[in-house]
Amino acid sequence: MSVSDNWHRQQDEIVALQAIFGESAVEICEADGPQRSFVLHAPLDTCEARASIHFYLPETYPSSDPPIFEWISAHDSNADSVADKPGYVIPRRQLVLSKDM
Fold first, then answer.
1. Chain CA centroid to CA 71, Å
2. Of 13, 37, 42, 65, which sits 20 to 30 A from 23 (CA to CA)?
3. In angstroms, rounded to a whole number, what is the distance separating the alpha carbons of residues 1 and 65?
4. Which H or E run includes 68?
5. Do the beta carbons of residue 76 and residue 89 sit within 8 Å?
6. Torsion angle of alpha carbons 11, 98, 48, 38, nearest 10°?
7. What is the C-alpha to C-alpha distance for residues 46 and 36, in angstroms, rounded to an integer?
8. H-helix or E-strand spanning residue 3
9. Which positions ≥6 away from 13 have C-beta within 8 Å?
10. CA distances (Å), origin 21, targets 6, 39, 43, 57, 90
11. Dihedral sign of CA atoms 86, 92, 98, 100 in order
């Protein structure tokens, strides 16, 4: 598969994520080289929590290499005041990705 084919398939995945989570939930990063990247700001269950995940797409993805991702933060706006900062999710409940914003 060519680099161009990989780029088009990557673009299809980004469009699919925008359709699921909303266009504003996918923040495309400026490319420093052949690797593309974006940050997904995805809602977590129904508790007004949100995760931010940075995805790096090598030019050989998806034909031969997997994407690389980095968990940036999760924030639960219903958390206790002690947890009232980005990067913390109160552990009293399990949080899961959701398509609801």
1. 8
2. 65
3. 12
4. strand 68-76
5. yes
6. -20
7. 31
8. helix 3-21
9. 62
10. 23, 12, 8, 19, 23
11. negative
